[in-house]
Amino acid sequence: MNDLNLNSSLPIEAKNAGFFVSRGKGEHPDRVLSSHELIFVTKGVLSIIEGNRVFHVSEGESLILWPQRRHKAASSFGPDLRFYWLHFVLYEADGKEQLSIPQHIKVKRPDHLTSFFRRFLDDQEGNALTQVSANLLVMLMLSEVADSSHTETQEDESASVLASRVNTLIRTHYHERLNTSIIAKKLRRNPDYLGRIFKDIYGHTITDAINQYRLKQARKLLLESQQKVDEIAQSCGYGDTGYFRRLFKRSEGISPKRFKSLHAKLHVNTE
């Protein structure tokens, strides 16, 4: 059998990464780095100054800090602040195609970016992170950030806006009793019509969207909180914890408890 040999060199070198959890005190250090730093806030707001610019990085937003530029805190850490961070070095590339990566942007698919960070940290924690895989993961992260600057044009503007309002309601009321009829009543629309346009635009039903978002929040709590599985089910809108466990296992292939034990290996720092 012949091996497939690939040139794995990339114009990027990953360094180290971590997950910061605030204790409600302290502030970002005043420093100048020799590498780039990618920050992705998952909760709260990080206020930081780079040069003469002040950035307020909110939940779901990313920020890239540049090397050889002084950066420091614009305010103290809030009690609910949490963010991923990653250092990397860039080299000159010969290729013609380049990524255009905004320095500060709302990430379009935060769950995708989070999954890349988790993979990086899991492998880093388990001493399974090779330089090649680390570099590839950083490229995937940066590609995800770059893709967030691309806006999609919907053919039917009014249907798109209405479907977006459904998504907004799901994200703000997922912890409450929620279904298509309740959402339709809030938006004063016919449930069948609302369900049809939502599926036309997003490719899945409103019920699927509710469960997907609830399970996304549940995964986050399993990894980043000390709540018990039943408490997480309740806080994510599932009155029937048995139903939550069945849905979770169907989605992830393992139970919530097993998921937590397998994946909650983040390198957490509080300073």
Describe the structure.
There is one protein chain. This protein is an alpha+beta fold and 271 residues long. The protein has two domains: 12-147, Regulatory protein AraC (Jelly Rolls, Sandwich); 157-263, Homeodomain-like (Arc Repressor Mutant, subunit A). The chain contains nine helices and ten strands. It has helices spanning 110-125, 131-147, 157-173, 180-187, 191-202, 206-224, 229-235, 241-252, 256-263, and strands spanning 12-21, 31-32, 36-43, 45-50, 53-58, 61-65, 70-73, 82-90, 104-106, 268-269. The chain has a six-stranded mixed sheet, covered by helices on one side. Strands 2-7-4-5 form a four-stranded antiparallel sheet, with no helix packed on it. Strand 4 and strand 5 form a beta hairpin. Helix 1 runs antiparallel to helix 2 (131-147), helix 3 crosses helix 5 and helix 3 (157-173) crosses helix 6 (206-224). It is globular and about 55 Å long. It starts with 11 loop residues before the first strand and ends with a strand.
